[in-house]
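Structure first, sequence second, as always.
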């Protein structure tokens, strides 16, 4: 898993960037404003994590 920060002038622009860049393949960890920029920290599952930790089916 890796963390990335997405930055934009406001919340709407930041969320639009997230949707266009990652779709539904990320989890918002934290969001905050610094000066005049809005930032969102997202968690992304990496390929190496997928190979190391297989997903089990619910029984």
């Amino acid at each position: 898993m890796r963390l990335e920060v997405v930055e934009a002038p406001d919340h709407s622009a930041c969320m639009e960037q997230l949707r266009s860049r990652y779709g539904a393949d990320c989890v918002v960890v934290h969001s905050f404003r610094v000066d005049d920029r809005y930032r969102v920290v997202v968690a992304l599952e990496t390929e190496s994590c997928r190979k190391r930790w297989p997903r089990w089916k619910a029984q």
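Margin note: The mean pLDDT is 82.
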